[in-house]
Design brief:
Helix content is about 45%, strand content about 15%. The chain is of the alpha/beta class. It folds into two domains: about 90 residues, Leucine Dehydrogenase, chain A, domain 1 (Rossmann fold); about 120 residues, Rossmann fold (3-Layer(aba) Sandwich). Bound molecules: NADPH dihydro-nicotinamide-adenine-dinucleotide phosphate. Belongs to the tetrahydrofolate dehydrogenase/cyclohydrolase family.
């Protein structure tokens, strides 16, 4: 039997429609559109594509987009000065500094400089702390998008065995925190995990966030499990995930494709965080 393919594009389109309704309600109540500032340093082509699509999606959702493109040799002080200006700008509700930054810049110092109430990426230590404590905050977009997909497919996640492969600060760790908050029983696996195959085999939910092409074969997947593949790997055969889709689709109950699975949800969740941040800053209630 073949798995249900989770259509991330369709999920994201529905989420963006709901966000547009909330963005319009915010604009009506606040007398201005919610605003997202995106900062790109340097010429990395993949980053340039992401920044362009974030800007387009922001405008399509009825929000204002402010793009700041800085040369690759921008120094730390200049970038900090821009972040400070955006922190102080009342028209800016969300600030996103596109990663990776050129190697001479201290990314941690920049991300910590962003006002935590405008930190729509959810990477500021204050938002990481809020997530761990179960307090309202801004949650990293990619793992939040994965959680929404899982809840759409499975409903209540209580008691399910979830294995997150990968422990990065931007995907693996916040994913594990969100699944724990949703009452799943969570295992975090990584490069030092012993017998990864056996760990993955007991999972009702597998979230793969490694960055190694097709490293999880179908025979590691428990029959009927739900598989969320975060990996984006460029190969000669095109973009592939961390899961071997062709074999996993024969065993899983539901699975995300790459591309067209998690990726579209990430941008939709960024828009959601922007309208949520705007509403909190202005004290406007939202229905989402
Ligand atoms: P990182 O490189 O920061 O983290 C990778 C994690 O995988 C690490 O925790 C590492 O373990 C673990 N790992 C590496 N090799 C193995 C192995 N052989 N077995 C088990 N675990 C292993 O990556 P990110 O979290 O930033 O990204 C992961 C993937 O997700 C990438 O392909 C990235 O492109 C993609 N991505 C996709 C997004 C989207 O919107 N769809 C957004 C963000 C990322 P250790 O800690 O021990 O080194």
């Amino acid at each position: 039997m073949s798995a249900t393919i989770i259509d991330g594009k369709a999920h994201a389109a529905r989420l963006r429609e709901r966000i547009a309704v909330q963005a319009a309600a915010f604009a009506g109540a606040a007398g201005r559109a919610a605003g997202l500032a995106v900062v790109l340093v340097g010429e990395d082509p993949a980053s340039a594509v992401y920044v362009r699509s974030k800007g387009k999606a922001t405008i399509a959702a009825g929000m204002e987009s402010f793009e700041h493109r800085l040369p690759a040799d921008t120094d730390q002080a200049a970038l900090i000065a821009l972040v400070d200006r955006l922190n102080a700008d009342p028209a800016v509700d969300g600030i996103l500094v596109q990663l990776p930054l050129p190697a001479h810049l201290d990314a941690d110092a920049i991300l910590t400089r962003i006002d935590s109430d405008k930190d729509v990426d959810g990477f500021h230590p204050v938002n990481v702390g809020r997530l761990m404590l179960g307090l309202p905050g801004l949650v990293p977009c990619t793992p939040y998008g994965c959680l929404l997909l899982l809840q759409d497919v499975l409903g209540d996640l209580t008691g399910l065995d979830a294995v997150v492969v990968g422990r990065s600060n931007i995907v693996g760790k916040p994913m594990a925190a969100l699944l724990t908050a949703a009452s799943a029983t969570v295992t975090i696996a990584h490069s030092r995990t012993r017998d990864l195959a056996a760990v993955v085999r007991r999972a009702d939910i597998v979230v793969a966030a490694v960055g190694r092409a097709q490293m999880i074969p179908g025979d590691w997947i428990k029959p009927g499990a739900t598989v969320i593949d975060v990996g984006i790997n460029r190969t000669d055969a095109g973009l592939v995930g961390d899961v071997d889709f062709a074999s996993a689709v024969e065993v899983a109950g539901a699975i995300t494709p790459v591309p067209g699975g998690v990726g579209p949800m990430t941008i939709a969740c960024l828009l959601r965080n922007t309208v949520v941040a705007a509403a909190r800053r202005e004290g406007v209630p939202l229905d989402m």
